[in-house]
Amino acid sequence: xxxxxxxxxxxxxxxxxxxxxxxxxxxxxxxxxxxxxxxxxxxxxxxxxxxxxxxxxxxxxxxxxxxxxxxxxxxxxxxxxxxxxxxxxxxxxxxxxxxxxxxxxxxxxxxxxxxxxxxxxxxxxxxxxxxxxxxxxxxxxxxxxxxxxxxxxxxxxxxxxxxxxxxxxxxxxxxxxxxxxxxxxxxxxxxxxxxxxxxxxxxxxxxxxxxxxxxxxxxxxxxxxxxxxxxxxxxxxxxxxxxxxxxxxxxxxxxxxxxxxxxxxxxxxxxxxxxxxxxxxxxxxxxxxxxxxxxxxxxxxxxxxxxxxxxxxxxxxxxxxxxxxxxxxxxxxxxxxxxxxx
Length: 342
Hints:
The chain is of the alpha/beta class. 37% of the residues lie in helices and 13% in strands.
């Protein structure tokens, strides 16, 4: 299996995350991608390729242009105020407040942020841009005939909505990839999000559409980030009714229950009959993940990789979460090897 990867992910190297009332080292850090890459090399999964620069237009097909401009300029605007720390939002347009975009960077951050844990620092935009290009290059390789391709994206993307960032995500790589499949001739595309956290951004982008089916398996929003989307009764709006499927599960969920949800999600995909499949591949469902509460074990990732392969669809795996740094490479590659039957 081909892996698309760029060293430019290292440009995203923030030092602070707001967690438990403290500023801590971010759980989403450069070593995540390095451990995965090392495992790809150790197992000789396949060639590792640099991304092409496919430009801004595929991003604009998914994200609001003003939002993208904000991401490009946020760090410079923050520095211009001579603030000493990294850029973290402190105020939001909450219930019954104005939703007009402020001029001052503090207000801009709050307007475009869905959560306050994720800081913006030097290199964030560049890393996010190239992460999207990794996904887009993966699309090109699938279109060229590869059965499966792994886009080793960092930073991740599935929490990034049409015009919001958060949850370590800035550009929605999986959504950009799905739209690129459509723009290159696919009639329908399915996205299955196996990350522990609900793919709220992906749901937001496609919620009123019928050309992209979205299914997410995740921690129940009453107990797990992002809290305000991911309930089972969220099934789409307008043309999108029936094309959004959420599978929220409670703390302590083991593989048998999780796999039942995956089986139903894959059944929905099969009936949808897409031309391509995008997997938002988060491995934070692992039993020892520090910010999650499912109980999957490493061999389970091989099993469900094989389950996905049974669909027989051209498949792009887009890296999302996973924060047990020591095992992230093993669990990620287990999915890919399971898919390939190796």
